[in-house]
Amino acid sequence: MNRAEKAALQLQAVAVLRMLKETRTYEELSDVTGLPAGDLNRYVNGHVLPGTDRASEVVEAVGRDALADELLARVEFDDEGYVDNSGVVFDQSFLDLVAPVAAETFEFESPDVVLTAATDGITLGAAMASFFDARLAYAKKSKETAVEEFIESRQRLASGIELTYYLPASAVDAGDTVLVVDDLIRSGETQELLLDIALQADADVTGVFTLIAVGDEGMERAREITDAPVGALTTFE
């Protein structure tokens, strides 16, 4: 890890601690992190930065649990099981914290392209792309008028409805490394189409990440397609 990477990790840890401090005293934050309250005070107030080992622990272990709890508090389910995650996907500052935590937790390799589906996946995709300094590409259910060449992936669902996604062919180059992300995975159909688009482009998939997994079906479906890491911030049964 070079000096710039160490500094970025330390700042990410401070951002996680500041988010946690919004609803906790320093003593409560100490119970959550296992770090002394005095040290936490200095980190949160910007007097010093945590060492790299301590920062890594905050981002990977404490950060994931804390962000998962925060996500759970913001997500709502209706009586039919539909998910309202607007409190998450509309909060870019929260998603900016998710990106480094996901990268550390699931050990995603740095991609050339972060690929997602319009529209709810775009804000998460932007956060991940910014963190990795990668290009963002998003597939849509309709073709852009001025674009001539597309990569197209189509699937007929169990309901009989046909789902098709289009990505401008110039968005992903052969040999690119691609991280597939989305806000939610349930059946895995959308993720399967995104993975198919990446494979059609002769790209290498470095991982699949989602904020929310509803059940295991979609996650297992993704694992059947790629050997790359597949992870979710939190899972609902």
Question: Descriptors for this entry?
Answer:
glycosyltransferase; globular; adenine phosphoribosyltransferase activity; Rossmann fold; two-stranded antiparallel sheet; Pur/Pyrimidine_PRTase; Adenine phosphoribosyltransferase; 237 residues; 5-stranded parallel sheet; alpha/beta; EC 2.4.2.7
Structure description:
- GO terms for molecular function: adenine phosphoribosyltransferase activity.
- Residues 93-218 form the Phosphoribosyltransferase domain.
- The protein has 237 residues and is of the alpha/beta class.
- 46% of the residues lie in helices and 23% in strands.
- It has helices spanning 3-21, 26-33, 37-44, 52-74, 86-89, 92-106, 121-132, 189-200, 217-225, and strands at residues 76-77, 83-84, 113-117, 135-139, 150-156, 162-168, 177-185, 204-214, 230-236.
- Helix 1 (3-21) packs across helix 4, helix 2 (26-33) packs across helix 3 (37-44) and helix 4 packs across helix 6.
- The longest helix is centred in the N-terminal third of the chain and has 23 residues, at 52-74.
